[in-house]
Amino acid sequence: MTESYNVAAYREEFERSFTWHQGFLRNVRRHGNQTALIDPIHERRWTYAELNGDCCRLANALKAAGMGRGDVLLYQLPNSPCFAFCYVAPQKLGAVNSPANFNLAPGETAYVLEQNRPKVFVYDVEYLEPTAKALELSAFKPERVVAVDFRGSRPVLPAGHIFYEDFVAPFGTEEPEREAPENMYEETTRLFTSGTTGMPKGVPLNGANDLLSAHDVIMHYPLNSSDVTMNMTPWFHRGGLHSGGLTPTLYAGAAAVILRAYAARSCLETAVKYGVTFLTGVPAVLNNLALRQEKHPVDLSHIKGIVTMGSPLEKQDCDRYQRLLSPNIFNGYGTTETFWNSFLRPYELPDMAGTAGRSCTDDEVRVVRMREEGRAEPEDTVPTDGRTEGEIIISAVGKSTLSYYDNPEATAAKFYKGWLYTGDVGTWDERQFVTVCGRKDDMMICGGENIYPVQIEEVLNKHPAVADCLVTGVEDPARGEAIVAYVVKAAEVTVRDLIHFCAESPELPDYKCPRWYRFVDELPFTATGKKRHVEMRKQALRDLEAGLLSKF
After folding, report:
1. CATH number of the domain where residue 521 is located
2. Distance CA 366, CA 169 (A)
3. Total tally of structural domains belonging to the chain
4. What was the pLDDT predicted at 440?
5. 92-128: per-residue pLDDT in tens?
6. Angle ∠(163,164,166) on CA atoms, nearest 5
7. pTM of the model
8. Domain containing residue 452
9. What's the rounded mean pLDDT across residues 170-192?
10. What b-and-e string marks burial along 15-33, b requiring 16 or more CB atoms within 10 Å of the CB?
11. Looking at the domain assignment, is residue 71 inside a domain?
12. Residue 118, in any domain of the structure
């Protein structure tokens, strides 16, 4: 076939320029004097030119430390200016920025270090003690360890650590030279999601994934350069970074307000002070905002929309939020691997509240049959009758590399023919509105974090007085789900003993520690010897209502 134009030249230029970083640089040129970042705690602003300068300074420091194409910068930081620098700077070198949950237990952070082998590791001194423990446990030691002293406390650092200011001080703000031209297929960002063992899996994203995730938000809000966003959840999440976080905001030429820690009062006061137009947070956060607004109302007329992800909204809750906070409520559903993939717009609420909405513009969400062995083909869908349950699968190749980092087994288990098999059970109706009904596996969602019982059970079973245990979840208005542990004793032990044991474990962060306990004589098993987690999830709700669960 004769080409009507120079396909090779077009492909070369398209793959070089169609990246998130190139879009950010266009905004540096286009909106150089416009506000890009706002730090309310220190009352400081960065223009796009100033933000790029600080990112270049870090990039030059990283390059001097030996970082180049494909190397990893791992950082555990709350939302902060340095988080933004760490997100952008590696992309200038063809390196990978990798934000990790700062609430991980030391053993989990050690696992992330060993699996990802970052050349440079950045952490916040607020988490100095668990970070030092993680580095002690890890068999892999980064070449440089950098401490961010956000509050100016200047603690004594362990040997070999350096403060961020000292790390970047010798370097200028000029753009660093790259080893090779930028390319849309290069890995730029590596996020983490929990596996069935509880240990984080790396989710690699490329330059086009970041860009198209930004496009998705810009298109669905819509978002433009006059907007001011504030994410009420941590940026290290896919939803935190890509939904109203740095990725769409800085790509659109808008301004991002940094919310280091969430509290309803400070959130609303900050939103008013800086004229925030889009807020993002999980449903539990919206409930807190509504409670605050009922008692201490502020003028939120500047809010264009509030976006929530993580779980569906009930109709009565949606009515309340639209009345108290904003008539424009959005509700998204998705995964770390694929971002958000179905969406409810304000005009679909509150009528369709309780559903996960319909597929986003460039995605496709289906409900396929569940099989005892293997999996259904993507075309083997259940009837669109709103009743027949199946597994929810997602096609979102623009926002996913369809893989896990260095984990072919997990990749093969979750991805098939370009589709992510989520493990969520759901139904869909004739208009393809999807409703999530539960999980095929035993995952719990607590405070927006995905939690699997196996990791917690393994820790509890290490206690000498525990013969066996089963961990499940129960609905909790503040957390989404609270963790419940059913324990069979091997010797005398109290709930207080187990609470202390879990709190002291280097393998469990606080949010994975059980909140409720019940001692039982035996646990339910299937005929093949597997624990009946689904059955016990229902039992936990009955036990909570009957007052049979203990937390002291």
Report:
1. 3.30.300.30
2. 52
3. 2
4. 75
5. 999 999 999 999 999 999 999 999 999 999 999 999 9
6. 70
7. 0.86
8. 444-545
9. 96
10. bebbbbbbbbbebbeebee
11. yes
12. yes
